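Quick note —
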Amino acid sequence: MKLAELLKRQSAFIKAMNTYSIRKKYTLERQLASLPLHQIKTIHAICEFFNTTIKREFDPNSHLKIWIDKLRELGEKLLPTSAKKDLANQDLINQVIRHIEQHYMDDISINQLATQFNITPNYLSTLFSKRCGVTFSRYITQIRMYKAKEILIEKTTMKIQEIANQLGYYSSSHFIKTFSEFHGSSPSQFREQHLDK
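Predicted structure written out below.
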C-alpha cells in the first residue's frame, strides 16, 4: 500500500475517531519508520498533510519517532471518548430493541422512536442497522413473523384476520403477503403443514 494512501486513511480514521482503526498496530508507523531520511520533499509533504488534516504540528526536522509518538498520543486521547460513545450507542439500541419487542404490535416508526429517545431519525436508523444488521422496519417485520408462527401453531382455531390484527396488521391481505414472502407459504398452508406433523 502506498504511503499517500496510508496517510489519507489514517487521517480519516483519526478525524472519525474510529476506535477499532486507532487500536490496530499502526501500519503507518511502520511505513514512517522505514522512510529514507534523504526524501526531504516527501517528509515535508507528510508534515504539511498532518498539519492541515489532523491539526497537529509536525516538524519536518523532527525525528520520525516524535511523529509516531504524536500520532499515538492523539490516538490514546481519542479512545476513551470514542469508547464511551460506543457504549452509549449500544445502550440506546438495546433500549430501542426492548421497546420494539414490547410494542411490535403497535404502529411504531423510526421517527416516533427517534423523538422518544431524543435523536434524529437518520442517526437512529444508521445505528440500528449497524448494530442489528437489518433495517428498523425489517426488524419489526421479523419479530411479527416469528410471533405469527407461534400463534398459528399454538392457537389453531384463531382466524387469520384476528392474528393479523393482533400483530399490528390492519389488512389481512397485507399480513398474508408478508408472511408468504417471509416463510415461503401462506399462514393457512403453514398451519396445515404443522398440524400434519
